[in-house]
Each structure stands twice: as structure tokens, then as C-alpha cells.
């Protein structure tokens, strides 16, 4: 069985959950594997994924074996598969750029990123590592607001001739200029901003779609989210938040019957509650009018572990990029991007996106 060789930029909680999952499902069979959308995509199972290169900037991660670094602080996600073998792949120093937000210095080190003092690599160095490692795609897991750093790693992926999975809300796959650059080189890309398996976005979208289908006029809505991981701490710097808010708000607006005025929709990360760690709690309120113009409202509270929730989708995104590579397909993978991500280049409702993804997998599975 062929392996899928991936490189990762940002070994935080999401990467930790993904890597744990690769090992967790190794000992499972299709009958007892819980929590996957697909056991197999083409010939690939979760355990066929292999991390061959990784970049981070935190002193507790750089220089360590990947399978140890994912358990280093400030990572705080639930450990569901803690007994990992040594991978033999050392975490390399990444290029910091805007990956680190200064406000983190006001918090205890156990909760924040602590930049390593190692020499930062240039583009040539990162490209060389990617090429020598045999990586077939790069997964971007940088903090929200890492605009320059994301462009740096996307540039490296292009130069190394590999695919790209953009898990974060910096617009690359949904930016026509970047989209064209990946298409030109026939390199597959999925993005932007991964949509968790059963998280706030998919739940809010599904309910919004339900209002539309049932003829209930949605007049006002909010989605407030709290969490205690570094993703939430990072997002306390409101200057980094713009694209996250756009991504999350548009994901809901896109499935509404008619767009809500800006004043009537509020969607976004709301606060950092340290003791929640990687537990994310989401509060949704929707106000509408049904038959006879009679008002109604709905309140929902969703509690999830944030990072495994995204890994359950990333594990499929990686395998779809691999299918594209096997079949010589490049550019944005539209079905998978719209099903797996909050901010694809084109929005479809989730039924349609699901079908497009199924069709993609069926068409390119050998
Ligand atoms: N959890 C989810 O469901 C979900 C959903 C959508 C998007 N995301 C996004 O995925 C990204 C990763 O999330 P997370 O929870 O793993 O974050 P995290 O804070 O746990 O991890 C970020 C990692 O990036 C590293 N880093 C910072 N700057 C870097 C640089 N320049 N080069 C290399 N590494 C760098 C940090 O040291 C840290 O290890 C975030 O942007 C988050 O918003 C997560």
C-alpha cells in the first residue's frame, strides 16, 4: 500500500489530533472505526498518512521528534492516542513572520507560544526540506492572522511542486490569483479554513438551511464561541480576526434564503476561557418568523473538543488531495473545498457540497 507523505506547518492542537488519529485508526477495522466520514478514500485509509516534514517556531517543539512535539505545551487537546512510536522526523524551525502575536507575552508560558531562538529558514531552505522529504502536500495549521507566514508557506509549496491544504482563514484557495498559480502548475489545493466535523459552522449552516427549506424567515442570528486553547488566546488580538469573521459569517450568509443585514448577524470567536482548554462551547441564537408572521426563536449550546473535530475533516482533505495527485488533477478541488472548508472559492449548500465530494471520490478512486 502506498503512503501519503505530508508536511505540516504549525504543530499545534489540530496537528496533534490529526497525527494521533493516524495511529489510532491503524488498529481499528471498518466495523469498529468511530468518528470517520470515510474509512477509505480511493485505496487510502487513515493510517496510510505519514508525516515526513514539520515546521514550528516554539522552543518546546523545534528540534524534537514530531510524535513527541505534538504533546508539548502549550498544546492542550485531549490525548486519545498517547503512545506513539518515535517517528524519526524532527520538527524544524519555521519562519516566524506574523505567526506570533505580541499580546501572548502577557500570559503564562504554559498557555502561549514561546518562539525558539534558532535561525529562521529562508524560502530556499524550506523548499529544499520539502523536496528532500518527499512530501506530496503541505498542511497549513498556523494561527489565525498569519497572513504573511501563510503566503510564505504557500509560496514554498508552489516552488516545491506539492499540493496545499489551507486549514486556516487566510484566503489562498479562495483567492483567484493564488488559485490560478496552483492551477498553472497543476497542483491540487483545498481551502480555506477547515470546517469541523460537527462544529459551530456546520450546525449553524444546517439550521439556516432548515429555516429556508421550511419557509421560516430568519431575521437575526448570533453565534458566540468560547475556548481555552492557543487558537482562542491568539484571537483575543482583534486585529488578527478580520478574515476569521468574514469566513465564519459568510459560511452562514451563503445558505440563508436572503442575506441578513450586517447588523442582524454576529458570528465569531467571543472569548478566551483558560480552563476550557481545547473544549469549545458555542452558543447559537436564531430569531425568525413563521406562518402568519408569528415570531419564533431557537437557542442552542454545542460543546465539542475543538481539535479532533477538525482532524476528522482534515483526514479526508489529505486523502482527496492525494487522489487528485494520483490522477494528475490540479487547481482548487471545488467539491472537497466547499464540503471541508468554511471559505471555499465558491459556496454550495452542504447537501450539494457533500454530493460533489462523493462524486469527486468516486470518479478518481482507482
Ligand atoms: N479546531 C478547529 O476546529 C479549527 C477549525 C478551523 C480552523 N482552525 C485553524 O487551524 C489553525 C490551527 O489551529 P490549532 O488549534 O492547531 O492552533 P494552535 O495555536 O494550537 O497551533 C498553532 C501552531 O503554529 C505554530 N506556529 C506559529 N507561527 C508559526 C510559523 N510562522 N511557522 C510555523 N509554525 C508556527 C505555533 O507554535 C503552534 O504550534 C488555526 O488558525 C485555527 O483557527 C481550527
TrEMBL record:
One of its GO terms (biological process) is inositol biosynthetic process. Residues 199-307 form the Myo-inositol-1-phosphate synthase GAPDH-like domain. One of its GO terms (molecular function) is inositol-3-phosphate synthase activity. InterPro entries: MIPS (IPR052199), Myo-inos-1-P_Synthase (IPR002587), Myo-inos-1-P_Synthase_GAPDH (IPR013021), NAD(P)-bd_dom_sf (IPR036291). It holds the Pfam family Inos-1-P_synth. Belongs to the myo-inositol 1-phosphate synthase family. This is Inositol-3-phosphate synthase.
